[in-house]
Known about the structure:
The protein has helices at 15-30, 54-70, 84-90, 103-113, 155-159, 167-179, 215-222, 244-248, 265-271, 277-290, 309-322, 349-372; strands spanning 6-11, 34-35, 44-49, 74-78, 96-97, 137-141, 143-144, 163-164, 184-188, 203-206, 209-212, 228-231, 255-257, 295-302, 326-331, 378-387, 390-395, 406-408, 418-426, 431-435. By secondary structure, it is α/β, with parallel strands linked by helices.
Amino acid sequence: MPSPPRIGFISLGCPKALVDSERILSRLKAEGYETAADYGGADLVVVNTCGFLDSAREESLDAIGEALAENGKVVVTGCLGADSNLIREAHPDVLSITGPHQYEAVMNAVHAVLPRPHSPFLDLVPPQGIRLTPRHYAYLKISEGCNHRCSFCIIPQLRGDLASRPAADVLVEAEALAAAGVRELLVISQDTSAYGVDLRYANSIWRDREVAARMFELCEALSELDTWIRLHYVYPYPHVDEIMPLMQSGQVLPYLDVPFQHASERILKAMKRPAASVRTLERIATWRELVPNIAIRSTFIVGFPGETDADFEELLEWLDEAQLDRVGCFEFEPVAGAPANALPDAVPDQVKAERWHRLMARQQEISAARLQSKVGTTISVIVDEAGAGEAIARSEGDAPEIDGRVLVSDADVEVGDMLTVKVDRAGPYDLWAHPID
């Protein structure tokens, strides 16, 4: 009997793209295809690209070129696929190009080169599908696209307007993941706060009851699955306050990932951001009043066109007042197709870099002080790596790969275990702890 066709897979970009890759791989596995660990063992290579920043575009084009050189048969999908002319100019020999979340088109492209080996049988695929994350956590994508038109962003051009999934669809997927051993669900989208707006918050049936496609109702239902629920990409709208009681009761992790991007009202207006800095400080104060142990992470852009020294100083002062737990920062990059590229008064690269270093140094002081306050306290952690009596874990305030770690000594544990530890010492980003009985 001939061996089944083998597909190589390269997944680039953000967690939302990773979920797209998982869905494509699940479809391939369901139809009897196998995956290959290297180019030589693959009959065809799928490259899921990123196109958000110019640096990501270059990385994607390089990955396509490498796959063509090493294998020769390449199917391209993902965000960069929305600019097919760019890909064709650089790599005219790719077999097919599709945009993000076009699963059927990807499968059709694979079928054209490697016909499906047999009719699909559902028992070929585990209940949770094929995943690219460790067994104990998974990303749960609740919507595609975005209705905002931020001047620095081309996501709506790549992924379209907001398209929310019915609540029941999300919950059935989450239920399967929890049943398969997932201990932490990371809720992702382009704008989690806007979930369900396009559906007019329509109800759907899950566990014999109606659940509205609204952030609060979805989180409340997810909390029944006995997993950590972590919220990402949450815009600071007033209705986010409704989630705080769920955090107080432990139904949702006391953690919010909020992309503030800047503090200067003038720059926020030029960015066409949907929230102002004064109101965001009010939101943060409200959240901390309701949930004192909440961890807030955010991202910022420095060197946006027209950003003056005064604007940047205002951002630093805002950070001092906001006292965020985790911060990521990017130098403004003129992404092809973004309206911000046409704005006057571009900031020189040297100034961008200097502002980046100053912001990160300021935030490091804030982060170190906030972590130092945890020394001597007990916290809950989930184990990501374990071995030789030590473990690398994360607290409720740390998302995988982007936040800090808790390094646990004298720990006889396994990956995915949840335990209570006492914090012994703190650094700028990480904690050191030991388990308590």
